[in-house]
Amino acid sequence: MIATFPPLQRMLAAMPAHLHADAARRYARHEPVLYQRLASLYGERADFDAWFGDLMEAVGRLHAARPPALLALDAERAERPDWFAGQRMLGYSAYAQRFGGTLRGVAARIPHLRELGVTYLHLLPFLRARAGESDGGFAVASFDEVEPALGSNADLEDLTAQLRENGISLCSDMVLNHVADDHPWALAAVAGAPGMLDYFHTYPNRKTPQRYERTLGQVFPQAAPGNFSYVAALGRWVWTTFYPYQWDLNYANPAVFGAIAEALLGLANRGVEVFRLDSTAFLWKREGSNCMNQPEAHSLLQAIRAIVAIAAPGVLLKAEAIVPTPLLPAYFGSAAAPECHIAYHSSLMAAAWGALAEQDTELLRRVIAATPPLPPHASWLSYVRCHDDIGWNVLRGEAGGDGADATARLARISNFFAGADGGYPAGAPFQTSGAHAAHGSNGMAASLAGLERADNEPARQQALRRLLLLHGLALCFGALPVLYMGDELGMLNDYAFLARPERAIDSRWLQRPDFDDARLAQRHDGASLAGRVHAGLRRMIAVRQERPELAAGAPRALLDTWQAALLALARGPRFLFLGNFSGAEVRYQLAEGRWTDCLGGDARCGRITLQPWAMLWLEHSA
Ligand code: OTU
Q1: Is 274 exposed, middle or buried (0-12, 13-18, 19+ CB in 10 A)?
Q2: Higher model confidence: residue 432 or residue 528?
Q3: Cβ(293) to ligand 1 under 6 A?
Q4: Contact by Cβ (8 Å): 419, 453
Q5: Which residue owns the Cα nearest ligand 1 atom 18?
Q6: What is the CA(278)–ligand 1 centre distance, in A?
Q7: d(CA 202, CA 190)
Q8: If we measure between CA atoms, which residue out of 276, 295, 273, 299 comes closest to residue 286?
Q9: How many of the other CB atoms lie within 10 Å of CB of 155?
Q10: Which of 206, 259, 407, 446 has the most crowded CB, counting CB atoms within 10 A?
Q11: Catalytic site residues?
Q12: d(CA 582, CA 559)
C-alpha cells in the first residue's frame, strides 16, 4: 500500500541514503508552498493526496538521477544564491542551428563566447520539433529528445559539460504553454487514448471558444488569427493561442503539471542550468479575462519553483512574460513564495527603441520609474533584441500617459521602424493591420539602428552610436544583459524567409540569420563595421565587469536632465550613465568634481556636450 506512505517518505525512498538529509531539509522548507499551491489548483480531486505522493516519488527519483557534477554545482550555488546577479554575468542568445549548425557546432563557438565575456548561453528551442514548420522549434514534439537535426541527447550532455568547464551556464527553453500537434500527447488524444483529450482545451463546437474570444487578445492576428483551431482528426476545436499546430496544454489537469515538472527535471539532469519558461503568462484560462497573468498561473510557477528548489536547487527559472510593466514583478513571487529568479524586462527594451524613434526619453523614464526594486536573489533580464518582435503593446500604459492616444503614438513608433518618411531604420511591422495600428516591429538591431541603410561614413557612425547606446543602457541598467546572436558583429536583416511562403507571413525571420563567419573574422579589424561594433561592445563589457555598482541588485536612480532626449541613470553615488537619444547635441551640467570617462575619453567636469546619439559612462573621482 505504497500510496498511503507520506509524500516525504515516498520521495526519500526513491533516492539513496546519502542524499536523504539534504533532500529532507529542502523538502521541509519548500513543501508548504508546494502543497498549498497544488492543493489550491487540484485539491478538490478525491485522489489529490495520492497524486501528490506519486509526484514526490517522481521528484525523488529524478533527484537521485542527478549526476554528481550537478549535485556539486547545486551545493556551490546554495552558498552563493546571488551568483547570477553579478556584474560579470553576461548572456548570449542564439538558435543552435543558426549559430553552430548543430550542438557540436555550438560547442565549437565557445571561444567566441569567452572572448566576449559570456557566462550564460540561451539556446533557443533545441528539443525535437514538429515535422515541418515549428515556429522556430517552439512547437515541441518531445521533451526528452534533442532535435535529431541538431544532435543527440549525448551531444547535449557534452555541450553542457563543456560550457560548464568554460564558466558558461546553458539556458534552455521550456515551452510550457503548448506542445506540437505531433507531440505524443496530441497524437494520443487524436487516437482516442483514455484521458488524453483532457491534456488540452477542446470543444465540440464554437460556442465556448466564441465566449472566450470576446475578451482574448491575439498574439499573431495576421499569421494565426483567433485563439482556437478546428482539428478535423479530432472533430473538435482546440485552444491554440499561437500557431494552429501549437496546442495549449490544460493545466487544470494535474497530469499535465506532473509531466511538465518531470520533463524539466529530466533536462536539468542533462546539465541545463536555466529554464526560459516560455509564454508563462498564458498558462491558465479564465472566461471573461484575457487569460493572461491569472493567479493560478502564478501558483503553477510557484509550485514548479518549489520542485526545482527541492530536486535541482542550483537551477534557475526565467520568466518570459511579455506583459505590461506593472504585471512583471509578480513573476518574481515573494520571499515566502518565490517564483522565477529572472524576468525579461520587455518594457525597458521596447521603451529604449521608442526613445530612439521619438528622440525623447519620456517612455523610457516612465518605465524605469515604474520598475520596483528587486526582491532578494532575483534579476531582471535586459536586452536590445531577441528572436521575437519588439512588442509595442506592453507600453500601452506608459504611452497613454497624460491623455495621449497610446495607439496613435505606438503606431508612429512602429511606422518609424518600418522606414516611413525615409528614416534610417530598415525594419518591418509585425502582425499590424495598418499604418494606424501597432503590434510589433522586426529587424536586426543594426538594421533598425540604421547600419543597413547607411551609405556614407557619417551615417554609419551615427548608426553605430545608436546601436551601442541601446546596448550601453542594457549593460548599465542593473540586470542580466543578454546579447542577441549577430548583434555583437552588427549583422543585418536576413530576407531569405520571404522566399518561403509558410514563413513570409512571419517577419520575425528577418532577425534569424545564419551566423556570419566573414564578419567574425573581421572582429579585430578596426576598419570594418563588424570590428567597430565588436570593439565598442567589448569595451563596455570589460568596464562593467569591474564595477559592482552595475550588478543587477545594486541601486539605480533616474536623474533630472531637463532635456527630453537625455537620459541620466545613476548607479550608486559614483557611476553615471548619460545617453542622448536624439540627433541633436545636448548639454548637461555635471555635479561638482571630476568625472572619469570609463569608456576611454578625457576626464570631464562642469557643463558638457553630448553629440547626437552619444553616450557617456562617467565615474566620479573626487
Ligand atoms: C514566445 O513568444 C516565443 O519567444 C516565440 O518565439 C514563440 O513564437 C511563442 O512564445 C510561442 O511559443 O507570447 O509571452 O509577439 O513575443 O509570441 C511571450 C511575439 C509570447 C512573441 C510572443 C511570445
Answers
A1: buried
A2: 528
A3: no
A4: yes
A5: 279
A6: 7
A7: 11
A8: 295
A9: 18
A10: 446
A11: 278, 320
A12: 18
Q: Minimal CA–CA distance to 260: which of 181, 185, 349, 371?
A: 185
242 CB near ligand 1 (under 6 Å): yes
Mean of the per-residue pLDDT values of the chain:
97
pLDDT score at 402: 80
- Tell me the pairing of strands 246-248 and 228-231: unpaired
Instruction: Give 121-140 pLDDT, tens digit per residue.
Output: 999 999 999 999 999 999 99
Ligand 1 atom with the smallest distance to the CA of 177 is 12
The letter for the amino acid at 424 is: Y
Residue 195 pLDDT more than 60? yes
CA-CA-CA-CA dihedral for 430, 432, 435, 438, to nearest 10: -80
Does 281 sit in the ligand 1 pocket, CB within 6 Å? yes
Phi, psi of 174 (to 5 degrees): -125, 105
Q: Is 533 left (phi over 0), alpha (psi -120 to 50) or beta?
A: alpha
Does any ligand 1 atom lie closer than 6 A to the CB of residue 157? no
Domains of the chain and any CATH numbers: 181-248 (3.90.400.10), 557-621 (2.60.40.1180)
Residue pLDDT, tens place only, 434-444:
788 889 999 99
Q: Residue 1 — very low, low, confident or very high, per pLDDT cuts 50/70/90?
A: very low
Cα of 506 from ligand 1 centre, angstroms: 12
